[in-house]
Specification:
Two copies of one chain form a homodimer. By secondary structure, chain A is mainly alpha-helical. Chain A has two domains: 61 residues, Homeodomain-like (Arc Repressor Mutant, subunit A), CATH 1.10.10; 122 residues, Tetracycline Repressor, domain 2 (Orthogonal Bundle). In chain A, helix 5 runs antiparallel to helix 9. Chain A is elongated. At the A-B interface, helix 1, helix 6, helix 7, helix 8 and helix 9 of A face helix 1, helix 6, helix 7, helix 8 and helix 9 of B. The first copy, chain A, binds a DNA duplex through helix 3.
Chain lengths: 199, 199
DNA sequence: CCTACCGATCGGTAGG
DNA sequence: CCTACCGATCGGTAGG
């Protein structure tokens, strides 16, 4: 194993990472369909056939971007082991952090809307992703209910669905005018209206 | 004034209307950037320079579609003269009706996400539209508060913002999987949690 | 990773 | 409203 070979692999990984970063930004700016492999490649500093050496087609690049983001976020924030009110609170914290990285918010906002088209290459990805998100939040509200802290008359499943929808809608308003809105504050106020005070 | 001339104008208006309908569907399906004037023209049954005779450029067609929709909706549902809880209830009715015309839901969902890009031709339109929608719903909640029917501790302005966000987010989920979700029912349940029963 | 190329498609214009 | 065309750009491949 020569240093050259090791460095070669390291360079390849770094290049691949750079491509994913620029593709993330580009897909967020103009969506998948309007994004151009040539433009992404230029930002990376290579030719567009060079990019296609790392990702064999545009679709593969899109799916790699989405999977990579899911990996990063679940590593970094690992909400899986949380439950109930604690889970919901951590989701609000994640939204607050997302307000510091508009590129990620753009990516999900623009792609999820584009992917409502049934023939979109990320359609299945987003259908599955939403099912998971809604179920996860519904579980949070069910936990709150079990702890006697969900306001009476609230259906936990409907609340989970609405909570996810609220996050998405806030992202659109925030991206349109970033100064007019504190996403996490609206979510906190919403939770405060649904959750009975701990005493 | 010959019949021929009158019919000529009538034909022109009908054609213009047909173009707006097909453009609405197309922009909803793939967004503005990915939509093609040739494809829209083919659906109408004319050539694409023929289409450009009615609308001088792609941008003009987009703005005409958006303005036309606003006209139709405000004529048909005229929410302007309503206030307070009555206004909020009529918005829920409008959402229920929108569930019967997915093309319109698609149009706003896809274009609003695409138009978060500051250089998008519909950016200013959506910034203004959201400011109006949020203010209108906030007014509804202020009216409820004045009537003593807003749950204590709820801020009417935050509730207005959240209500608009909730509608938008529900649209994404509904377009991704139309059988899994009753948008109007979730909105009604949300209102029921915010508004004190009338007695 | 590159240059060079393919066929397809784009918005818009010329000229009628 | 049409045909015919413009320059630009697209995703992907050949061949090295």
């Amino acid at each position: 194993m020569s240093d050259v070979l090791v460095r070669g692999y390291a360079n390849g990984r770094a290049r691949r990472q750079l491509i994913l970063d620029e593709a993330t930004a580009m897909f967020g700016e103009v969506g998948y369909r309007a994004a151009s492999l040539r433009e992404i490649a230029t930002r990376v500093g290579i030719s567009h056939p060079g990019l296609l050496h790392h990702f064999p087609a545009k679709q593969a690049l899109l799916l790699a971007v989405l999977e990579h983001r899911d990996e990063i976020d679940s590593e970094q924030f690992g909400l899986d082991h949380l439950q109930g009110i604690e889970l919901l609170g951590h989701i609000v914290d994640l939204v607050a952090f997302n307000a510091t990285r508009p590129g990620i918010v753009e990516l999900y906002c623009v792609l999820s809307a584009e992917a409502t088209a049934p023939d979109h290459p990320a359609h299945a990805f987003f259908v599955q992703r939403y099912a998971r998100s809604v179920e996860s939040c519904a579980g949070g509200f069910r936990g709150a209910q079990a702890a006697g802290r969900l306001r009476p008359g609230i259906d936990p499943d409907a609340a989970g669905r609405a909570f996810v929808a609220l996050m998405d809608g806030l992202q659109v308003q925030w991206l349109l005018d970033r100064d007019s809105l504190d996403m996490a504050a609206v979510l906190r106020a919403t939770l405060a209206a649904l959750i009975v005070t701990d005493d």
